[in-house]
Amino acid sequence: MTLLLAGCNRGPDDTRLTVEYFRAHAAERQSTLRECANDPGNLNNSPVCANARQAARIEDVGSLRNLPPMGLPATPGIKTDGNGPR
Length: 86
Prior knowledge:
Blueprint: H1 2-8, H2 19-24, H3 26-38, H4 40-43, H5 47-65
Helix pairs in contact: 3-5
């Protein structure tokens, strides 16, 4: 019975699925996040889901920094040089 249940898990490599791993493997991160969202009752607090979520937080913030300027109107009284307020 124990072997049967062990076969249902992802496998022994779950312990190696760190934040750094998920940051480097976007497709695996997205797949894991979908799996975690699909079964939050069982997986929400698992280390693998926590690591995938943290990696997504880090990578998503980084990608926002790389977005082009949005062209919002200037705020009166704030001077900018294209690199943010000064």
